[in-house]
Design goal:
single chain; 208 residues; mainly beta; four-stranded antiparallel sheet; 9% helix
Length: 208
């Protein structure tokens, strides 16, 4: 009987040793932490800058200088900005008046007004359109000394379909009396630039 108990005890010891040699119990093992997904940043969204438009509010006013002559010019268009499409005839009107310092009674005349339209996009500058010129048909030019003013309308013709804006380059040539009632004059020139956005063509292909 004693022999059977010893055999049973030996069996228990062997079983325990077998269990201890199998490593930690499954319930004692820690659950592995899942790896976090790699974060990738999305490429930045490139937004095209808005097209400059000096006539977006309907008109713009500029103060220019030509020697002793100060020139105040107003620009506007009777055509709505959403109709400034590439194929449309796009009118630009202007009105100017001058003052001179010191004002000793001499006159200021406008000999010539010129507009050069240069269409362009963010990627390309296209060929300039034919310049438009208003050459005075009277001696010395048009009297433009305040309160007398000058008004004119130029037209921007067809521009390339890819153009997104047009730069209008204005040149004003003045004759200024050297002194009151004198028949001697000094020539002075003022320049200005106005940028106007070109509207996209309608899907229907309308040209207005």
């Amino acid at each position: 009987m004693r022999t059977m108990r010893l055999a049973a005890a030996a069996t228990v010891v062997v079983a325990s040793a077998a269990l201890s040699g199998c490593g930690p119990a499954p319930w004692a093992m820690s659950t592995p932490t899942p790896s976090e997904p790699v974060k990738t940043s999305a490429p930045p969204v490139v937004v095209a800058p808005p097209v400059e438009n000096d006539l977006s509010s309907g008109s713009t006013q500029r103060d220019l200088t030509a020697g002793a002559v100060k020139v105040a010019v107003n620009y506007w268009s009777d055509l709505r900005m959403d109709r400034w499409t590439p194929n449309a005839v796009k009118p630009v009107s202007l009105s100017l008046v001058t003052t001179i310092t010191p004002n000793d009674g001499q006159k200021v005349y406008l000999q010539k007004a010129t507009m050069l339209a240069v269409p362009a996009s963010a990627e390309e500058t296209f060929d300039a359109l034919e310049p438009q010129v208003d050459q005075a048909s009277v001696k010395n030019g048009y009297l433009v000394l305040k309160p007398y003013s000058y008004s004119q309308t130029f037209n921007v013709g067809q521009v390339p379909a890819d153009a997104t804006y047009v730069t209008l380059q204005f040149t004003y040539d003045f004759l200024v009396q050297t002194k009151p009632k004198a028949d001697e004059y000094a020539k002075q020139t003022a320049t200005d630039t106005v940028t106007v956005a070109i509207a996209q063509q309608a899907a229907s292909g309308s040209n207005d």
